[in-house]
Amino acid sequence: RYNIETAKSAGFCFGVKRAVEIAEKTAEENGSCYTLGELIHNGSEIARLQKLGVYPIDSPDDLPQGRTLIIRSHGVAKSVTDYIHDKGISCIDATCPFVAKIHNIVSKSECPVIIAGDPDHPEVIGIVGHCRNPDEVSVVRDSDELEKMAELQKFPRQNALIMVAQTTFNSSKWQSCIQVAKKHYTNITIFDTICSATAERQKETEELARRSALMVTVGGKNSSNTAKLAQISQKHCPVIFTQDGSDIDKAAVSELLPLQGGTVGITAGASTPAYIIKEVHRIMSEILNNEEGFDFMAEVDKT
Ligand code: F3S
Q1: What residue's CA is closest to ligand 1, atom 2?
Q2: Could you point out which of 45, 113, 266, 299 has its C-alpha 20 to 30 Å from the C-alpha of 128?
Q3: How many structural domains are present in the chain?
Q4: What does this gene product do (predicted)?
Q5: Do 82 and 173 reside in the same domain of the chain?
Q6: Residue that terminates a domain, selected from 43, 64, 95
């Protein structure tokens, strides 16, 4: 008899969940709505949202007349919100409050800004776009880049400056950046703006994996945060990595689960929608043929 347990932090983080709910509600009230860029990097969730009337567009200029635009959790540059405002476009800002906090920090700072993050990531582009002086901003991917930047003496050693991190920046890379920054700059103020959602998901995954006979990790094959969850789980038990559950086969499960009972844990990456996690739970219940599976199927049949 197996007990199937899904990690509470599996799937969307607070900020993405919030943005998706805002878009769903707006589409329900107005018939449709448009998001500036895709709300989430997950094709099936985008397709699900489109069925509900939530459509992604690339530019505010593509917004059909009379419709509402949603700014996604990553946030955007100030020039973008100014443009939307000047055009009189109806807009709901679903920027994650943790990202908005970084916008607030950099927009208030009169000194140069170092951002630890990926310069091509929409969140970082948005943060750069809230800095007072774009010429006095440096985005570094890691401590090596920070080291090189410091050696070029872009910012004088003793001048005041601040450093923030992309919310999803890797925490050990961040610690190295802090060390390098403190070595080169004597008057630097560092704001730890890494969001705890990723760390919490990883911690809970590890705790669950430790007491599980098998872990099922759900997420896109190219999702690095899901791969990380699989890697963490693997330290404690065998792991099945699945995109949506359809590729889980019974033979592989029974091979990995020689024990007659125990806990099977389910965790999921940050871009995995709740309905996919539920579907994987259902598939696992069915495969393991426990009562939970039968109950769940009975519920599905009733609907
Ligand atoms: Fe998500 Fe917001 Fe954190 S979008 S990862 S809760 S910064």
Answers
A1: 15
A2: 45
A3: 3
A4: Binds mRNA; thus facilitating recognition of the initiation point. It is needed to translate mRNA with a short Shine-Dalgarno (SD) purine-rich sequence.
A5: no
A6: 95
216 and 174 in a common domain: no
Evaluate the CA torsion angle 208, 214, 218, 220 in order and state its sign: positive
Residue by residue, pLDDT tens for the chain (303 residues) are 789 999 999 999 999 999 999 999 999 999 999 999 999 878 888 999 999 999 999 999 999 999 999 999 999 999 999 999 999 999 999 999 999 999 999 999 999 999 999 999 999 999 999 999 989 999 999 999 999 999 998 899 999 999 999 998 988 999 999 999 999 999 999 999 999 998 999 999 999 999 999 999 999 887 888 999 999 999 999 999 999 899 998 888 988 887 678 999 999 998 899 999 999 999 999 998 754 443 433 333 333
Binding residues: 13, 41, 74, 96, 121, 167, 195, 223-225, 271
The complex scores an ipTM of 0.99
CA distance 300 to 288: 18
User: Does 285 lie in the same domain as 212?
Assistant: yes
Question: Do 107 and 180 have their domain in common?
Answer: yes
Ligand 1 atom closest to residue 96's alpha carbon, by position in its atom list: 2
**CATH at residue 201:** 3.40.1010.20
| CATH number, domain with residue 87 | 3.40.50.11270
Active site residues: 123
- 292 CA → ligand 1 middle, Å: 32
CB distance 165 to ligand 1 below 6 Å: no
**What spacing in Å lies between the alpha carbon of 38 and ligand 1's midpoint?**
15
Contacts of 229 (CB under 8 A, 6+ apart): 201, 202, 205, 217, 219, 267, 268, 269
Instruction: State how beta strands 188-190 and 161-165 pair.
Output: parallel
108: containing domain: 98-190
- Torsion 201-204-206-208 (CA) sign: negative
195 lines ligand 1 (CB under 6 A): yes
The answer, yes or no, to whether any atom of ligand 1 lies below 6 A from the CB of 168, is: yes
Answer whether 191 contacts ligand 1 (Cβ < 6 A). no
For atom 4 of ligand 1, the residue with the nearest CA is 15
State residue 77 phi and psi, 5-degree precision. Answer: -65, 155
